């Protein structure tokens, strides 16, 4: 059974209800199982502008928005790629993109309650300091890179390894390659460099579509990802297992949940452990007694006659 297909960046703007319904329904029709609707924030989050106001599109609205949505959802259920049991549903995720210029502002924005109101938190680093912070310690789910322009930093192997070790993924949005030839050349050059440093791991390919005409089907996106120097399996992972891992890690981070394994020991095992501990304690005490000796009393210094005693002796 193949994993569900994710497009984690349907738009970089907060969508109106009608526009959002149009894009989500078209994504479902193309075969996507999970769609991330993006809110583009400023560096400093504000309560009025950046509180999550994205609402999922209702089922009836999806079915009436475009022809073929019901058939696409039913086919996805038959292929076993559904996230939930309802064959007429698609997982809709909320996401915030935070452009980062200053490390202090980036840390404050990512740890704020406003950012925690979204399912996914992505940071767009604009300089080397921010890229290093995102890879090393910043609590984010995605490092979203604008690869259609010349980057002011390089993908150092140490930073890339640090991000992958933490479970942070790198995102490539392919829609700039559909707009201009110059943007396409720069995107392919940067994507090749990134995939070479990551060795195909931790890569998520999303659309970043501004309109439904820029959306592409999952297999088309996988074929495009293979042009970045990825194998066929790695290219499929960029739209399936890798974004699924991002969503799972984000849910764990937001819930602050962990697991604890408790082992119940038998009574005989507990008694044996206690006996061994007592034996070791007795041996240690006996060894300490052998090492302890009475302090050596210092000999009294020899008698030195004083000047008065010498004069008295002469007399």
From TrEMBL:
Keyword Repeat assigned: no
GO BP annotations listed: tRNA processing
Keywords: tRNA processing
Keyword Magnesium: no
CC annotations in GO: nucleolar ribonuclease P complex
Alphabetized Pfam families for the sequence: RNase_P_p30
Record localization: Nucleus
A GO molecular-function annotation: RNA binding
UniProt record similarity statement: Belongs to the eukaryotic/archaeal RNase P protein component 3 family.
Listed name of the protein: Uncharacterized protein
Native source organism of the sequence: Chlorella vulgaris (Green alga)
């Amino acid at each position: 059974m193949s994993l569900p297909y994710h497009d984690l960046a349907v738009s970089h703007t907060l969508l109106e209800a009608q526009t959002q319904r149009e894009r989500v329904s078209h994504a479902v029709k193309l075969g996507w199982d999970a769609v991330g609707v993006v809110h583009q924030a400023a560096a400093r989050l504000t309560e009025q502008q950046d509180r999550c106001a994205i609402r999922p599109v209702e089922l009836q609205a999806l079915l009436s928005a475009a022809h073929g949505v019901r058939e696409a959802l039913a086919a996805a259920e038959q292929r076993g790629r559904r996230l939930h049991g309802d064959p007429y549903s698609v997982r809709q995720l909320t996401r915030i993109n935070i452009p980062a210029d200053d490390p202090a502002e980036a840390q404050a924005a990512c740890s704020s309650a406003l950012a925690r109101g979204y399912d996914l938190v992505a940071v767009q680093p604009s300089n080397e300091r921010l890229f290093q912070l995102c890879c090393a310690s910043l609590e984010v789910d995605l490092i979203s890179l604008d690869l259609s322009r010349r980057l002011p930093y390089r993908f150092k192997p140490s930073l890339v390894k640090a991000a992958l070790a933490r479970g942070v993924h790198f995102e490539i949005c392919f829609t700039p390659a559909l707009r201009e030839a110059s943007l396409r050349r720069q995107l392919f050059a940067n994507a090749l460099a990134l995939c070479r440093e990551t060795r195909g791991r931790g890569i998520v390919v999303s659309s970043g579509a501004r309109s439904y005409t820029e959306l592409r089907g999952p297999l088309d996106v996988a074929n495009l990802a293979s042009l970045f120097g990825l194998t066929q399996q790695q290219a499929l992972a960029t739209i399936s297992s890798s974004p699924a891992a991002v969503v799972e890690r984000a849910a764990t981070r937001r819930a602050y949940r962990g697991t604890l394994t408790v082992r119940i020991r038998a009574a005989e095992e507990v008694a044996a452990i206690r006996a061994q501990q007592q034996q070791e304690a007795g041996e240690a005490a006996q060894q300490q007694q052998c090492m302890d000796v009475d302090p050596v009393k210092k000999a009294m210094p020899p008698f030195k006659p004083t000047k008065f005693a010498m004069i008295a002796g002469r007399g």
